[in-house]
Amino acid sequence: MNVLWIMVDQLRWDYLSCYGADHIDTPNIDWLAAQGVRFNQAYVQSPICGPSRMSYYTGRYVRSHGSTMNGTPLRVGEPTLGEHLREQGVKYSLVGKTHMTPDIAGMKRLGIDPTSPIGALIRECGFDVVLRDDGENPTASPGRKSAEYEAYLRAHGMDGDNLWEEWANTGVKPDGELVSGWVLENAPYPARVPKEHSETAWLTTRGIEYIDAQGDQPWLCHLSYIKPHWPYLAPAPYNDMYSAADLPPVSRHTSEKDTDHPFMQEWLKMRACQNFSRDDIRDAVGPVYMGLIKELDDQMGRLFDHLRESGRMKDTMIVFCSDHGDNMGDHWMGEKDLFYDCSARVPLLVYDPRPQADATRGNASDALVEAIDLAPTFLEFFGGAAKPHILEGRSLCPILRGEAPEWRQFCVSEYDYATRPPRRANEIDQTDARLVMIFDGRWKYVHIETTRPLLFDLEKDPNELNDLGADPNFTDQINRLKAMHFDWSRQHHTRITRDDAAIEKATDRGAPPGVLIGYANKEEVDQSGGIFPTHVKR
């Protein structure tokens, strides 16, 4: 048995037709949903790339693994899914993006050579890297440039000093003028790179090549796509496949702009929010975002055709998800960030090829699912023993089998906004620049250190337009959700070096032989079965 774990960057759940979107048709992704289980309430552990992915890759909450913002290294020694699966003889490979920042200082402190076999695994979040392509701007991050993609483009006749920038993220105006894909108003122009050589097409090809090259050893391939993440630029014909008339209605209300909440007031002043609040920008970018999703769906069709034709559908679990969504003008916001459903809620489709999952094919589950649930799911799928002292998620395998296991009552997501302008605008110390979402399936509570919380009732207000956090009529709900947050915070999050069985064994054993604490006399020692040190005459 094998796993193909597909992750898409910045893909909204509600821009897929299998989730009810009627403004776009994604038949190939829909086909996968029909083969397995569609999870309707899946939430990431942070609504931004790096922390979200580190939770996926470790099976642990952000407060547990410590990589709380983009660019913050995953510390040396933090267990990853790769380590757990290698114990089961599983090959754990990367084709695409991780957004991993290595703890070089930690490796230096411990004397670990980053180029050694163990150093390479630590540096790459436990993955055997087939190729890593983070879609980074090589101008700003020369050490993280995808040399393989650049070599591929050169081999197909494209040249320049910075091919990722000059081809994949440069648009072409009708008169031939080249324009930057970073500029939002340029989004409608086709990317200079042909569609057959786009990053999405190239990564699909490399994923297929990886699968075809595998022998008998079980494997997990993390096929991780960059688009529809910005720069919002698509190759023809996807750049103008849709128009502003195809976009769903924007979800926002003037009351959100008039908020008295100091945090939200400053957040809405950021450039991305200001620009995506403009109808002309959303009308230019939104259709291209849809085009990038359509391109992805076409490539999924190509990938799934290959899996069917090669017989791999019989022995490969397929998981499709994203690392977070995209605000796309909703709530007067751009980019991702914060905990609205357009950002923190993600698509999650799981196809399990085993006969035990036949009864749930095409089903939907409303269980409250977290991104960290995938790690224990994969471990169970490959026959590994559960590790609840390390992996904080819950295996989805019982749900895939049609069982009704005891399940969590709320989801948690976290956000460290220490590097964002609202922190300084509100004179918040960086240690207090943190947000925590608690969502129980109806009520969404956002704890904001130093000021009042946000509160939304998604049953009566599914578009999350009405913040109830300052309404005294909802004090009881706030206190209830605050208690959930406190309960979660009090749990063990770092006791990972002794498993549950070791703890129970130590409890049954009591003090080690020869350790006699609190005994008044020899009779008490004899009655309890205690053992005197060997050099002492009793």
Number of alpha- plus pi-helical segments? 20
* SSE-based structural type: alpha/beta
Task: Please give the largest β-sheet.
Answer: 8 strands, mixed
Radius of gyration: 25 Å
What is the mean pLDDT?
95
DSSP strand content: 15-25%
Shape: globular
Helix content: 25-40%
Oligomer status: single chain
Stretches with pLDDT under 50, minimum 5 residues: none
Instruction: Strand order, main sheet: write it out.
Output: 4-3-7-1-8-9-2-10
Span between N and C termini? 60 Å
Number of strands: 14
Map the helices and strands.
Elements (H helix, E strand, L loop, with lengths): L1 E7 L18 H9 L1 E7 L5 H10 L3 H4 L15 H6 L4 E6 L7 H7 L6 H7 L4 E5 L14 H9 L7 H6 L1 E3 L5 E3 L18 H15 L5 E7 L28 H4 L4 H6 L3 H6 L2 H32 L5 E7 L18 H4 E7 L11 E8 L3 H8 L15 H4 L10 E6 L4 H5 L8 E6 L3 E6 L5 E4 L17 H16 L9 H10 L12 H7 L10
Parallel strand pairs: 1-7, 1-8, 2-10, 3-4, 3-7
Antiparallel strand pairs: 2-9, 5-6, 8-9, 11-12, 12-13, 13-14
Helix pairs in contact: 1-13, 9-13
Folded structure, characterized:
By secondary structure, this protein is α/β, with parallel strands linked by helices. The protein is built from 20 helices and 14 strands. The chain has helices spanning 27-35, 49-58, 62-65, 81-86, 104-110, 117-123, 147-155, 163-168, 199-213, 254-257, 262-267, 271-276, 279-310, 341-344, 374-381, 397-400, 421-425, 475-490, 500-509, 522-528, and strands spanning 2-8, 37-43, 91-96, 128-132, 170-172, 178-180, 219-225, 316-322, 345-351, 363-370, 411-416, 434-439, 443-448, 454-457. The strands form three sheets. It has an eight-stranded mixed beta sheet with strand order 4-3-7-1-8-9-2-10. Helix 9 (199-213) packs parallel to helix 13. It is globular, with a radius of gyration of 25 Å. The model has no long low-confidence stretch (mean pLDDT 95).
